[in-house]
Design a protein that fits this description.
Layout: H1 3-14, H2 26-43, E1 46-53, E2 60-62, E3 69-76, E4 89-92, E5 95-98, E6 109-116, H3 132-151, H4 162-195
Antiparallel strand pairs: 1-6, 2-5, 3-6, 4-5
Length: 211
């Protein structure tokens, strides 16, 4: 799956496959696809483990190299232990601070378990195959709603109710999309939270601590 494949899938859902008379341009569909992928990422993000190296004399780690970062779920330090050693941490902007007693040695490896936004570009995709139809559903819904707004009070070859039909169709698909995201996102959250039991109980703080 790549961006071109997704555009084709969305066009099929919208019955917009006449290349000589497309209703939506590629650019417009890509914008709606991007919107759907963002929604999908927030509900069902890409889960990755990222290794960072500690700076001598500091408990702070820069997160700026992690593109598309949504959240850090857990931090393992030191690495290589069994069972894994998860530590508490705090995060502010692009800096993660290890809440550990001893300052890590320079170059010590710290493994972050992160949730990132999915990518969908000209050559590849991180969207799982079983979620591709869902992403296409969301993109088609956004495209239909955009068209209904555009077509209001315009002359349409499909008749005066064309905009209303697109509005109804788009709202129905968007409701399906959002319902699926809510269900799958809740399931994903419950599963993820069970993976990383904190090695040290959280302190009672108003700040959001990591596991």
């Amino acid at each position: 799956m790549n961006l071109s494949d997704m555009r084709s899938r969305v066009r099929r859902d919208l019955h917009d496959e006449d290349a000589a008379n497309y209703r939506w341009t590629d650019g417009e569909l890509e914008r709606h696809i991007g919107h759907a992928v963002t929604d999908l990422s927030l509900a069902i993000p890409l889960e990755v483990a990222v290794a960072l190296s500690a700076t001598a004399g500091s408990r702070d780690l820069s997160l700026s190299s992690i593109t598309g970062l949504i959240d850090v779920e857990a931090v393992e330090y030191p690495t290589g232990k069994y069972p894994p050693s998860f530590v508490r941490f705090s995060k502010w902007a692009n800096t993660l601070t290890l809440l550990v007693d001893s300052v890590p040695a320079g170059g010590a490896q710290v493994r972050l378990y992160c949730r990132k936004g999915h990518t969908l570009d000209a050559t590849s995709s991180t969207i799982p195959a079983h979620l591709e139809d869902l992403a296409a559903l969301g993109a088609a819904a956004y495209a239909a709603l955009e068209w209904s707004s555009f077509a209001t009070n315009r002359v349409n070859v499909g008749g005066s109710e064309t905009w209303r039909n697109y509005l109804s169709w788009g709202r129905d698909r968007l409701a399906q999309f959002q319902k699926a995201l809510g269900r799958l996102g809740a399931n994903n959250m419950a599963r993820t939270r069970r993976l990383y039991a904190p090695s040290v109980p959280k302190a009672s703080q108003t700040t959001d601590w990591g596991p």
